[in-house]
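Bench notes, afternoon.
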Amino acid sequence: MDIIHEILRYTHIIGGFVGLFLFWIPIFSKKGGKIHRQTGKYWTWLGRVVVLSALAGLFLYIPQIIEKNISPNNYAFLLFLGYLSIVTYVVIAFGVAVLDSKKDPKVMNTAYWKTMLAICFAASIFIISFALIVKPGSMAVLLALSPIGIFTGLQILQYIRGKQSSPKAWLYEHLNSMLGAGIAFHTAFAVFGITRIFDIGLEGTIAIIPWILPALIGIPAQFIWKRHYQKKFKEV
């Protein structure tokens, strides 16, 4: 079991590091070009490997939590990492799927995507409930970021029902999804990676910075990028 856990851990760490750098190539390359499509494809598959290895590792850790009666304060971040992994997987898959439904988004109105959005809703509700009932030290962070799954579920629901006001909706959903997944990648690295690599122990109010900084940068970037293409296509 320890060997499996180590394999998953190193797969996650190495994949995460490579993914952080690979993410920026399709971001800055010509959209729709060969480099953009190829590196984007590599990144989305790598992203799936990273989040699935994280989830698998967390499931293997559950027996230890039960056996050792570990305090909720100590595994709250692990639960959040699991939640973040679930939502990130769905976001990546959705960002890829919209490229195949350009002409008719309703082709995605399937049991699979209804299940995916239901999982996002359930994951958010679980984290909110955990934060309110257990009240871990990270309660504020959990409550602040837990609605992401709900917003993701609503975004998918609106798209698969064909409720778009633009023929370029697939493009905007693709851009937002990929940037959203990038935010999740960088948040996980800022919270769980940098602090361990450089042995940084943030305390007090500043401890929240790694949690919110990627979103503070990424969310405005989503808006600006979408606005850029809306102007390009004369939709504003």
